[in-house]
Amino acid sequence: MEKVAVITGGTRGIGFETAKLFLENNYKVAIFGSRKESVDEAIQKLDKFEGKVIGFYPNLTVESEIDDAFSQIQNKFGRIDVLINNAGVSSNTILENYSQREIDNIFNINFKAPFLCCKVAVKYLKETKGVILNTSSMVSFYGQKSGCLYPMSKFAINGLTKSLARELAAYGIRVNAVAPGVTKTDMVRNLPDNMIEPIIKSIPLQRMGEPIDIANAFLFLASEEASFITGEILKVDGGIIN
Ligand code: NAD
To answer: Which H or E element spans position 222?
Structure first.
């Protein structure tokens, strides 16, 4: 029986690489993206997996839209085994400069969306003794010099992970997070060089992470090999100590 994974922010970067890796490892995959165009584009890039991958673009802050997408996935694939809360927005704004719009966006995508996706997914995951995986960040351990709402949201992701690991263990559901270091995606390309360069210099393995490094960690944590691991925040960051 092929397992089914739902990946938010699956249209590019870490989420897209994770979708591809799960498909290559005999999962069926549902990708969530923010817009129809980006979802269609991602599905097109995965055309060799036709019939095994579908895309949706629910508003991740509206429970009924997420609910509708999950019931369509259940109807099409017959089960849901893994939820990967990966969509996220970063920030390097200094405290005084935060606009209401940016505050709301970070709260909506980094806090509210993963919470609501867990809330909707749990009834399906109870059936399959499934797995929730969250995308945290190295900044969830260290904070960062500007853009405090981003680490604040990732500390919250760790809290969600550890709390749901306790709450859902009774149903056989495992909940873990991966905390990527600096990883080569659009998110990092948009940050200023003066923020990235000192970080790379401090990585013992002397390179940035690739999206596949993070995808491999998700695949492991979703697998039977990780069946005794829950409530863990797995650092995948080249050994960085900030
Ligand atoms: P990315 O910018 O390439 O991808 C972000 C994804 O989030 C996209 O697929 C996008 O569609 C989705 N998203 C953003 N806003 C959305 C919205 N309003 N509605 C729905 N989806 C939305 O970045 P990435 O690096 O692949 O980031 C993936 C995750 O990894 C994020 O949670 C990020 O915080 C985390 N992370 C990244 C790094 C890094 O260095 N790249 C480091 C630590 C953690």
So the answer is: helix 211-222
Give the nearest ligand 1 atom to 87 CA: 7
Residue 242 within any structural domain of the chain: no
Q: Can 150 be counted among the known catalytic residues?
A: yes
Domain that holds residue 179: 4-236
Q: Is the pLDDT of residue 199 over 80?
A: no
Identify whether 73 is part of a domain: yes
Looking at the 3D structure of the chain, how many domains does it have?
Answer: 1
Question: Which CATH number covers residue 133?
Answer: 3.40.50.720
Task: Answer yes or no: is pLDDT of 148 > 70.
Answer: yes
Helices then strands, each counted (H, E), the chain: 10, 7
Please report, in angstroms and rounded to a whole number, the separation of the first and last CA atoms in the chain: 43
pTM metric for this prediction: 0.97
What is the 1 CA–ligand 1 centroid distance (Å)?
30
Q: What spacing in Å lies between the alpha carbon of 86 and ligand 1's midpoint? A: 6
